[in-house]
What we know:
- The complex is a heterotrimer.
- Chain A has one domain (5-285): Formate dehydrogenase/DMSO reductase fold, CATH 1.20.1630.
- Helix content of chain A is 67%, strand content 1%.
- Chain A contains eleven helices and one strand.
- The longest helix of chain A is centred in the first third of the chain and has 26 residues, at 75-100.
- Chain A starts with a helix and ends in a 13-residue tail after the last helix.
- Chain B is an alpha+beta fold.
- Chain B has a single domain (12-217), classed as 2-Layer Sandwich (Alpha-Beta Plaits).
- Chain C is α/β, with parallel strands linked by helices.
- In chain C, the strands form ten sheets. Chain C has a seven-stranded mixed β-sheet, with helices on both faces. Chain C has a six-stranded mixed β-sheet with strand order 30-32-31-34-29-33. A four-stranded parallel β-sheet of chain C has the order 11-10-9-21, with helices on both faces.
- The two termini of chain C are 32 Å apart.
- In chain C, 65% of the residues are buried.
- The chains are: A mainly alpha, B alpha+beta, C alpha/beta.
- At the A-B interface, helix 3, helix 8, strand 1 and helix 9 of A face strand 3, strand 4, strand 5, helix 2 and helix 3 of B.
- Strand 1 (201-204) of chain A pairs antiparallel with strand 4 of chain B, so a sheet runs across the interface.
- Bound molecules: ligand MGD (2 copies), iron/sulfur cluster (5 copies) and molybdenum atom (MO).
- The site of one ligand MGD has 35 residues of chain C, from helix 14 and strand 29.
Amino acid sequence: MHPAPSIIVFTTLSGLGFGLMAFLGLGLPGSTGWVALAFYVIAYALACGGLVASAFHLGHPERALRAFSQWRSSWLSREAWLAVLTLLVVGIFAAGRVFWGQLWQPLGWLGAALALATVYSTSMIYASLAAIPRWHGPLTPLHFLSLSLAGGALLAGQVGAALPLLALAAGVQLVVWMQGDGALARSGTTMASATGLQGGAVRAFEPPHTGTNYLLREMVHIVGRKHAARLRVLTLILGFGLPMVLLVLPFNHWLGLLAVLTHVLGIFASRWLFFAQAEHVVGLYYGKR
Amino acid sequence: MTQLPTTTTRKLGLVIDLDTCVGCHACVISCKGWNTENYGAPLADEDAYGANPVGSFLNRVHSFEVTPADDAPPSLVHFPKSCLHCDNAPCVTVCPTGASYKRVEDGIVLVNESACIGCGLCAWACPYGARELDPREKVMKKCTLCVDRIYNENLPEEDRVPACVRTCPAGARHFGDLGDSESAVSQLVAQRGGFDLMPEMGTQPVNKYLPPRPKDQLQETDILAPFLAPVTDTSQGFLGWLDRALSALPGAKE
Amino acid sequence: MNQPKIDTSPKVSDEVRKTTCYMCACRCGINVHMKAGKIAYIEGNRDHPVNKGVLCAKGSAGIMQVNAPSRLRAPLKRVGPRGAGQFEEISWDEALQIATSWLAPLRETAPEKLAFFTGRDQSQSFTGWWAQQFGTPNFAAHGGFCSVNMAAAGIYTMGGAFWEFGQPDWDHSKLFVIFGVAEDHDSNPIKMGIGKLKARGARVVGVNPIRTGYNAVADDWYGITPGTDGLLILSLVHLLLKAGRVDLDYLARWTNAPVLVNCTAGHADYGMLLRDSEGREMVIDRTTGQPAPFTQKGLRPDLAASHQQDGITYRPVFHLMAERYLDDSYAPEAVAEKTGISASRIRALAAEIARVAFDEAITLDQPWTDFRGETHAKMVGRPVSFHAMRGISAHSNGFQTARALHMLQILLGTVETPGGFRFKPPYPKPATAHPKPHCGVTPGAPLDGPHLGYVQGPEDLCLRPDGSPARIDKAYTWENPMSAHGLMHMVISNAHAGDPYKIDTLFMYMANMSWNSSMNSGGVMQMLTDTDENGDYVIPRIIYSDAYSSEMVAYADLILPDTTYLERHDCISLLDRPICEADAAADAIRWPVVTPDRDVRGFQSVLLDLGHRLGLPGMVAPDGSPAYRDYADYIVNHQRKPGIGPLAGWRTGGDGRGAPNPDQLQNYIDNGGFWLAHVPAEASYFKPWNADYQNWAVGMGFYDSPQPYLFQLYVEPLRKFQRAAEGHGPHQPPDHLRQRIAETLDPLPIWYPPFSDAQVDTDAFPIHALTQRPMAMYHSWGSQNAWLRQIHGMNPLYLPTNLWQSHGFGAGDWARVTSPHGEITVPVAHMGALNPNTIWTWNAIGKRRGAWALDEKAPEATQGFLLNHLIHELLPPKGDGLRWANSDPVTGQAAWFDLRVQIEKTTPPAHSLPAHPTQGAPVPQGPRDVAWKVGQ
Ligand SMILES: Nc1nc2c(c(=O)[nH]1)N[C@H]1C(S)=C(S)[C@@H](COP(=O)(O)OP(=O)(O)OC[C@H]3O[C@@H](n4cnc5c(=O)[nH]c(N)nc54)[C@H](O)[C@@H]3O)O[C@H]1N2
Ligand SMILES: Nc1nc2c(c(=O)[nH]1)N[C@H]1C(S)=C(S)[C@@H](COP(=O)(O)OP(=O)(O)OC[C@H]3O[C@@H](n4cnc5c(=O)[nH]c(N)nc54)[C@H](O)[C@@H]3O)O[C@H]1N2
Ligand code: SF4
Ligand code: SF4
Ligand code: SF4
Ligand code: SF4
Ligand code: SF4
Ligand SMILES: [Mo]
């Protein structure tokens, strides 16, 4: 799939933002006042920034409100609702923390649950697509949630939680790649099933058009995949390895910030790979993956 | 509406004969022409005379080569592809706005362009590449099954078929109700072993494809050998045979 | 669920205007839907005899052609150097004055100094008439480089060939064998026909090195080695004869198989046919054992009997055929290696042909009467049909190969019988019923007759008294005596060389001669711009009519911009290249469904205007005013013979023959743009011999009297040229051509290797290189079409698996391809379903930078390419001091497909090579985006 910057930014940032909200909702850290405000501003900036970025992906952002209408079947609709609900609930909770020093914990728990549900529904947008075998399955929500939680813990300064969550996310990431690399092959969808042609090996001969088209631009992204191996290493080092090393070093705010930054960079790389490496089965019709 | 109807009254769709399609792209262009002038926004072409032209099309003709395992020659199959109007259409259920829907009366999957936000999710969900975002209007485009032709009272009755079907010079495209087992298209599917594309996707396409007939079967010289039994081996060779044969012709008087 | 309400009955258009498509020479009927006075949508006309409602991609994309940004806008005068594409827009008056000032002196002094050649236009009977009135012998259309082999072989053999001459009996055929066709002119009818066969489950066999399109849907594919079809066909003939699987009754009655041939070697008429005093061919009547003219009532022609007369031995043609083709050199085993088809597959095909022809014969309950007066209760058919085109004809052995195929059909008795091949009126028409070529020039007066025709012997050649060619293209000379369509591909090089003489003005219409239409395109560009020692252009003046900014425009001094096909009157005439069906005579018109928004004029109207200014007979009324207001006026009022005009329908007094009818065009428009007259049922088959057909044809004005004739398995005119080459007769060929004429102008079909194979080192150049027509593109015009160019925006060179692997090619690689003449560097792609010695690409996708209102970086220019740079109109020198033409020795047909190359992998250049510099153009580049809905 085409690794559109808007979507990479959206999934990365909103994942972090909602992850952070989840921790904040759990009362971790238990800050109030200005400190709490700083945390919530960061969380909202990330979550909303991500959502705004995603609007750039739309052909008609002015009609974006329509996207709330199909919550019965569409994960994108559900995500929209959940995101708004999360922002509202966490907002009230945050107001308590920041302005009145109150801890309305049940509301916090609800907010945390909603934040994770948002991340889950984001992931389900992708996981529900059978046409993209690499995404299709329970690993995708696990992947999104584990990244969101690890990032959230990191941002929330929860070193104790962040270390195991980062390790877990790294592990999930590895499994995602390993599974993903064989997903198209395992899906049972082949050029033969795509065309129904029998009696021999099927090969794409001439494409329907000599130039490109929307499908090829959007779903078949061969160029980027060349750098996949290097980006995977980069993801592991920046996204998980370095932050973990930095966390086990004696605590220092600058190191913490550095850990967050490298993590975010790593997750950008991970997301880029998430899209660039995902093969849409339509590529089979073009003899491309 | 993004929920799919549990059943549709009819299942209108296309049956495409891969044994007959010569790959002429006539259906592609008549579709482009009709749908530019009719349903929804015109199908645009970006960089139309430039280095990288990209237009939206609702129907495209691929071609594939099939190489048998034995040393029979490879064959080539021209392969038109447009929306299959799936019964279990994932493009519909993913749509967040309800712009994509499947019609209850005939099963046609359509995009309501004025509700479409151009998120592209439906195109991602379609395994067949049947949807293309228009490069200028930024709304999702797909085969409408010529919904504005097939019921159009401004057209003569015989023209109330999709533009691509009407134009196909080889007669490789058939249109009808695949929900009615008595219909001509259903009969054709039954006779010729029509099949679904990517059945494993569970999309339950309405459109069916007829397989190419087996190729290069004209090898059985032993069966055909009697048709070439030489006459020249008989007495006086060819001319002797000729004389006898001429005498045997009706009307020949000796 | 609440679905949106949609309008399922929108208004389709304000009005439908029915006219004729022009995107190719198939000439389908179209319904042009108009909205707000503009063209909104084009679909096929269901009532039209050619396409019956269907339409191909090009036809449907016509709207983008009419709106193409490359359309020329006004007459142009060259201001920069030739080839630079710098022009000044001028008025029509000025343009016509310039043309008149150039041409009038030529007509008065040396009319041959005007060479007027037209491309694939559809008004040859008109342009030819104009050229005849001007008085130049130098006129032809593009047929000489296109498929004259097919046409001439068909006319000489059976009075018509495939395509516009006839068609398979799609409704009855059970086995269809198609040789060397990618698309053909009969684009839609062939597809419709194949569709019909497929729907019935009839077998289709494709003989073609490449398995795409028709060959892809063929049930059986014979991936033949290029240039060897003649061998395959003669091997089929061998097997069928050997098995006695030929239609003796048919051969005896309707062909010259029983006609007696002088077989006494050394006699002056050795090899000539025995004729009576009236010139009728003689056969032995099996009833009497005596010779009799073939027309005799109650005749039983004998295929077996020999005859002695005046000490001369006469044997029937059929003897000679048996003698030749029963020879083991035509056995499948003997031809398998050369053709690349195994002996067993050749046998299988022959056996299947025999089975279907004779065991599945069909009978129609339709009585008919033959020209000898005999009545037949039924029509018996052999349901095997054939079709062939340039894959056979664009080789230097193409004439004889096409002859061989016609002989095969005739042996089977499948021509003009149910299930076989059927002529379309006004065919059949034997070679003898066509005019002969004329080249008699008188300054200030018309030519002595029509330019093109069918020679009957050396006496009919177009030679000047000193024996030199009378025509600039050297048509009808000993080099290519039967060049029935002229040799357009030789005009520029001959004019440049001043051989046989220099010309002054080259006037071309609708032919992209500086690019895809020429062999050796780079060389042609050079010839067009070359100057002499005084700095003058070697070809002094070039006038060109095009509708678009093509590559050729840049090379003209004066441009007469044409309208597009929906903006003008045209007529598709029975006098020309008609659109008839086997069951009906038909003709059609085009009419302006929109008016041009530019200062352009229909070329035919411009020619009439020019003709008037030049004072050409027939174009000036007695009072000195123009005889015809415009082409529309000509179409209605011109008469070739009394009662016969360009259009046959709605003449005053009836169809076919009759006085001009002032309402004729409106009658056509009211009828959907065409006219149709059905062939009576009793006349529908056996047309050359069917008395009812012959009478009907006379009534329609096709001939003035019934013209029954025999199919010419043995073509006597060929023998006459052979005799001359052997030293007989007053007309003698130059010595260097004797051997070739004797060998190749054989009166019975033969096969010989394509000339290039003999003159090229086939070890160094082992690979055959071909082009194919893409179904969705028409030569160079398609690239200016925003829709079509997305389908074919570039053209890879397709390589078979063995070459792909042995050279280590992979996706995205490029190759350098070299021929004895040139070199190109191009992108490659892999194809398995391909003859292992063949590579190919789509024709005419490659464009020169700057042309067609395309971006300089258009893929057509950066990745597209032409094979033409590798092909030369002359063969490589073979050391005899002569340069032999890369053409068929009988007809002069350009041997495009004889090309031999070698290939090597190379690093991809930035641009396909050769990369000619960007050309200037009289139109700006097209708009960036296109999206419109008419009426909104
Ligand atoms: N390598 C290779 N080369 C080939 C062939 C091949 O098989 N292989 N085939 C050969 C054959 S058979 C042919 S027929 C030629 C065809 O070659 P051309 O006859 O040159 O065909 P086009 O490129 O279409 O060029 C015709 C010209 O007509 C112009 N035109 C189009 N419409 C109109 C109109 O309405 N009025 C006027 N006045 N002009 C118009 C176009 O703009 C174009 O410049 O190519 C030959 N060249
Ligand atoms: N869409 C479209 N239609 C057209 C045209 C166009 O440009 N586009 N051009 C028109 C014109 S001007 C013409 S002349 C006709 C030509 O129509 P076609 O005769 O179909 O011409 P080509 O496309 O040149 O195809 C020649 C075919 O012969 C095959 N071939 C080559 N050599 C051999 C051989 O030795 N033996 C055999 N058996 N096959 C061989 C090639 O593989 C190819 O399939 O098409 C007309 N129709
Ligand atoms: S129009 Fe018919 S034959 Fe041509 S590509 Fe389409 S389906 Fe195939
Ligand atoms: S083919 Fe694709 S777009 Fe059409 S209904 Fe099926 S899934 Fe949807
Ligand atoms: S692009 Fe339009 S139709 Fe497709 S899912 Fe998005 S809103 Fe629905
Ligand atoms: S049914 Fe209509 S919209 Fe669909 S592919 Fe055919 S022409 Fe296009
Ligand atoms: S075959 Fe196509 S381009 Fe040619 S006349 Fe017919 S519709 Fe037009
Ligand atoms: Mo041609």
